[in-house]
Amino acid sequence: MPVIEDRLRELGYEVPDVAAPVAAYVPALRRGNLVYTAGQLPFVDGELPATGKVGAEVTAEQAEDLARQCALNGLAAARGVLGTLDRITQVVKVTAFVASDPSFTGQPGVANGASVFLGRVFGDTGIHVRSAVGVAVLPLDAPVEIEFVFEVEE
Question: What's the whole-number average pLDDT of the chain?
Fold first, then answer.
């Protein structure tokens, strides 16, 4: 029985289809007991729901929601190489890139959209290390891009 996907449904979410890469890379790759995802943009049905800089065209609250969508897309990428999310034994690392207006300094709050979400989904297994970095621009003018590292059972 898919425990993690059941938990997602209880929270009101579904794992989307794996987002198509926007360049020459794969969405996720397993090496040993780790799954690394490519940077995940907040695509919903193949479209970005918002574009622009956080702190200018995009509010911090909107960006936090977009970070949660990046996490869902990261889970989709991981499921694509694992077959099931139930093989994840630990969320290890989250690296969030936030396209930021020069005066915006709330990158950690934006990244919390993904971090808090993963904690709600995985419980203690969702506790991870993290970086939240402000950048000038992201692909397709996305406000947020996040990459993930998951530990998985052998």
Answer: 97
